[in-house]
Task: inverse folding
């Protein structure tokens, strides 16, 4: 990749959700080829918590995208440049917004593993994850009728709103 096409850490992480633009490729997001030569790091990732968390692969891939230069996608074999076409056209403000959504999605993934499966708020959290994923994959704004659009710069993130909703729900212990 040419130096003028170099992606910053946030842009590289957004390619995880960005479809490949190479011809008829159907790949829906850049998955880095992981270098497993660092046995200590591999051992840490293999902790019980990571094995139990279904979303650990997403977290591992996002960490790899943020801290090392990756060459090709392990799904389609194309370079990160093919996945970054849409990301390159985003403004810095949009990149920051979508990066916040990645953080919200990771928070949802962590939170979902801590909620009792029979609790009704699990469905709300799952729907929020779907909304975040759709926004990241299409690079479009979140349009949720019951939340609306905030008008001030100190507005809560989508995850924070859902978390406040979940916390406000009374738990029936019967």
Result:
């Amino acid at each position: 990749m040419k130096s003028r096409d170099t992606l910053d850490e946030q842009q590289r992480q957004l390619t995880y959700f960005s479809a490949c633009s190479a011809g008829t490729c159907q790949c829906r997001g850049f998955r880095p080829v992981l270098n497993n030569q660092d046995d200590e790091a591999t051992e840490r990732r293999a902790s019980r918590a990571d094995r139990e968390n279904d979303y650990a692969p997403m977290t591992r891939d996002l960490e790899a995208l943020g801290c090392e230069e990756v060459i090709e996608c392990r799904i389609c074999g194309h370079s990160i440049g093919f996945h970054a076409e849409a990301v390159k056209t985003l403004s810095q403000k949009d990149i920051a917004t979508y990066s916040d959504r990645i953080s919200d999605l990771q928070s949802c993934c962590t939170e979902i593993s801590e909620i009792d499966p029979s609790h009704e708020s699990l469905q709300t959290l799952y729907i929020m994850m779907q909304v975040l994923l759709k926004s990241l994959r299409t690079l479009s704004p979140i349009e949720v009728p019951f939340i609306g659009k905030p008008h001030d710069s100190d507005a809560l993130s989508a995850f924070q709103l859902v978390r406040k909703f979940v916390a406000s729900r009374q738990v029936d212990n019967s």
Summary: Residues 37-54 have pLDDT under 50 and may be disordered.
